[in-house]
Specification:
The structure holds 2 protein chains of 2 kinds. Chain A is α+β, with helices and mostly antiparallel strands. Chain A has 14 helices and 10 strands. Chain A folds into 2 domains: 183 residues, no CATH class; 127 residues, no CATH class. In chain B, the strands form 2 sheets. In chain B, strands 6-7-8-3-9-10 form a 6-stranded mixed sheet. In chain B, a hairpin with a 2-residue loop joins strand 4 and strand 5. In chain B, helix 3 packs across helix 4 and helix 6 runs antiparallel to helix 8. The relative contact order of chain B is 0.18. Classes of the chains: A alpha+beta, B alpha/beta. Bound molecules: adenosine-5'-triphosphate and magnesium ion.
């Protein structure tokens, strides 16, 4: 039989049992739709984390005290206090792949203005801190290096802090707030960043010169971490090795000693964070994949029923000259049609479901074309694979036995 | 006269577990073009087995079978399918039409398996075959909208459509009442008068008398072969039947 006729015969057979065909396809429809949606959600959350990390700053690197890679064992205070201003100076002078560097110290506490108060976090940095974090000041100005080095009691406030202490939308530049009873003059308001993907409000911050935070708020001289910008993303590997070299020297580490600090890049951080969502995506995808498999088994089941039901038809087709291969193809095409058609509906449904999830979560969910193509290929393979055995059984029937079948 | 079927010492054994059933025990049979042969005999005597082998649905265990001059005994499954497609027309007792498929499409079926025939040609031939059995105006009807006799006519049209060298009918009137049986027989006689070779298995002596020769089987042997004298004309028989009253 020629391909056109085979297709027509298969379509007619499916049309004859519309409800059954639809229910059989439903397994595939649900499987494909969930695979596509799950992968889209996974991809979306990954992208949202990546965007978040990218918005933290450009080509950012961090130095953290202690060796975080040592199996996550809690480090003693001695190791968590090993970064100093001397390290910053060394990085500034020795590492040419680093274009900006700033210490970071932070402390949580109550910010007070008049009768209002608000629990928030104060971050201390140098003038370059904002540049590294790709943050800008929308009203007022950033503090200068002189202020940063000289413990000036000035600060920048995030939009949330300004709103909570002074009222919605009010520009508090020039006002004074107290943080842990230390008065800070507000010299600027930070650009609004909104929530990050973990739901934290990024505007709930105060940024002040690190020396002020160290001496007046924390009363110590250590630095909690160092933040830097590499000249370019490509040079971040080079920058890491330069920083490691510089810090090993300032920390006077011998050849055989491990680093007592850790340098990590934004990409590494991104990789760590996204690896979690990747595992999740794989899990969700696998569960969805199982439902696709179950759908395939549904097709196989119905094809077996169909072959048995139509045994006499098979016998008749053989008696008028149908060869085994004609019969095989007839049933195989039927099962491929079921799975591919189900797959197409599933793809459409997957797009719809992804759009709904996007509307609900505001994650940048995009259905990947690769997953659509994958779904399509998998459906075809399922059709062939699960249709093969029933079709073979039909093709191997003996025409006389088939004609006599009751 | 051309010989269409030439069978020499044909045997067919079935093996069911330990038991071997000798369905045909050495049959010689020649059927010439234009003959209308009745195959008769008791139940289990091997009539259907014979017909299936003639129709290349089954293969003999031993013996020689020349169909239209070609030895088909040793052919492969696919070769036999091709022979059936081009040279054989089957009519079954239970019609065997595809359900929910129009009469026309049912008749087209054998031609669907012939790649050399175009869609248009297929349609034309199918319509011509339906015309030959007098059902052209019912071609869009589904089998369940047709009476048994009409369904059998569709099946006959299907057996004609590929212009086979022989039409094989296995108790083709077995499911029909007397009147309809004669209608069908009159159709077969008409086809035979136009030169079709027909081999027809039947239990009914009346029906057999409509044909040209009878071959009687018993226990896998042919026990009697004779030309039919006083051949009946099915159309005349039909008019002679008492008109049904209600
Ligand atoms: N597939 C088979 N397996 C085993 N034995 C078979 C098979 N087909 C037929 N037979 C046996 O072969 C013998 C001939 O059977 P066949 O069907 O040819 O009889 P028949 O003359 O057509 O009978 P009926 O008039 O009842 O149709 C019987 O004994 C039957 O049991
Ligand atoms: Mg029989």
């Amino acid at each position: 039989m020629n391909p056109g006729n085979l297709l027509k015969v298969a379509i007619n057979a499916l049309k004859r049992n519309k409800m059954r065909s639809f229910l059989t396809m439903l397994g595939i429809i649900i499987g494909v739709a969930s695979v596509i949606t799950m992968l889209a959600i996974g991809q979306g959350s990954k992208k949202s984390i990546e965007d978040q990390i990218a918005s933290m700053g450009s080509n950012m690197l961090f130095v953290m005290p202690g060796n975080m890679r040592m199996g996550g064992v809690q480090q003693g205070s001695s190791s968590s206090q090993r970064l100093t201003v001397a390290d910053i100076k060394a990085i500034k002078t020795e590492c040419d792949a680093i274009v900006a560097v700033s210490p970071e110290v932070r402390s949580s506490g109550q910010a007070v203005s008049g009768s209002s108060n608000w629990p928030t976090t104060i971050y201390g940095g140098s003038e370059q801190y904002l540049e590294i974090r790709s943050w800008s000041v929308v009203s007022g100005r950033n503090f200068t290096d002189t202020e940063a080095e000289g413990s000036a009691k000035v600060c920048l406030v995030g939009r949330t802090v300004a709103d909570e202490l002074f009222g919605e939308g009010i520009d508090p530049t020039g006002e004074t707030i107290r943080f842990k009873n230390i008065p800070f003059k507000i010299i600027g308001v930070l650009e609004e960043k909104g929530q990050n993907s973990f739901g934290q409000d990024q505007d709930d911050v105060i940024i002040a010169p690190f020396t002020t935070v160290q001496k007046r708020v924390l009363a110590q001289t250590y630095i909690q971490s160092i933040q830097m910008s590499a000249r370019s993303a490509e040079e971040s590997e080079l920058a890491i090795s330069q920083v490691e070299e510089a810090l090993r020297r300032t920390h006077k580490l011998r050849e055989n000693e491990d680093n007592d600090f850790e340098v990590r890049s934004q990409e590494e951080l991104a990789t760590t964070m996204t690896s979690v969502t990747e595992i999740l995506t794989i899990l969700l995808g696998a569960i969805a994949g199982i439902s696709l498999l179950v759908g395939g088994i549904g097709i196989m089941n119905i094809m077996y029923v169909s072959v048995t039901e139509r045994t006499r038809e098979i016998g008749l087709r053989m008696s008028v000259g149908g060869r085994s291969v004609d019969i095989l193809l007839q049933f195989l095409i039927e099962s491929i049609l079921l799975s591919v058609f189900g797959g197409l509906i599933g793809i459409v449904l997957g797009f719809g479901a992804s759009a709904i999830v996007e509307a609900l979560t505001s994650w940048p969910i995009t259905v990947m074309w690769s997953s659509v193509i994958l779904a399509f290929v998998v459906c075809t393979v399922i059709g062939v694979f699960f249709g093969w055995y029933p079709a073979r059984r039909a093709a191997e029937l003996d025409p006389i036995d088939a004609l006599r079948f009751e | 006269m051309k010989t269409i079927i030439d069978i020499t010492s044909l045997k067919k054994d079935y093996h069911v577990g330990e038991v071997t059933v000798h369905a045909l025990r050495g049959v010689d049979l020649k059927i010439n073009e234009g003959e209308f042969v009745a195959i008769m005999g008791a139940s289990g005597s091997g009539k259907s087995t014979m017909l299936n082998i003639i129709g290349c649905l089954d293969r003999p265990s031993d013996g020689i079978y020349l169909l239209d001059g070609v030895n088909v005994a040793g052919m492969s499954k696919n070769e036999r399918a091709a022979i059936r497609n081009l040279k054989i027309g089957f009519v079954f007792q239970s019609y065997n039409l595809l359900s929910r498929t129009s009469a026309l499409e049912n008749v087209e079926l054998p031609l669907m398996y012939n790649r050399l025939i175009s869609t248009k040609e297929r349609r034309e031939k199918a319509i011509a075959a339906l015309e030959a059995v007098g059902l052209a105006e019912r071609m869009d009807h589904m089998p369940n909208q047709l009476s048994g006799g009409q369904q059998q006519r569709v099946a006959i049209a299907r057996s004609l459509v590929n212009d086979p060298v022989v039409i094989l009918a296995d108790e083709a009137t077995g499911n029909l009442d007397t009147r309809t049986s004669y209608e069908i027989m009159s159709l077969f006689q008409e086809l035979n008068s136009k030169g079709k070779t027909i081999v027809f298995v039947t239990h009914e002596p009346d029906i057999a008398k409509c044909m040209t020769r009878s071959v009687v089987f018993r226990d896998g042997h042919i026990i009697r072969e004779e030309d039919i004298k006083n051949r009946l004309n099915a159309a005349e028989m039909l008019t002679a039947l008492p008109v049904e009253q209600d």
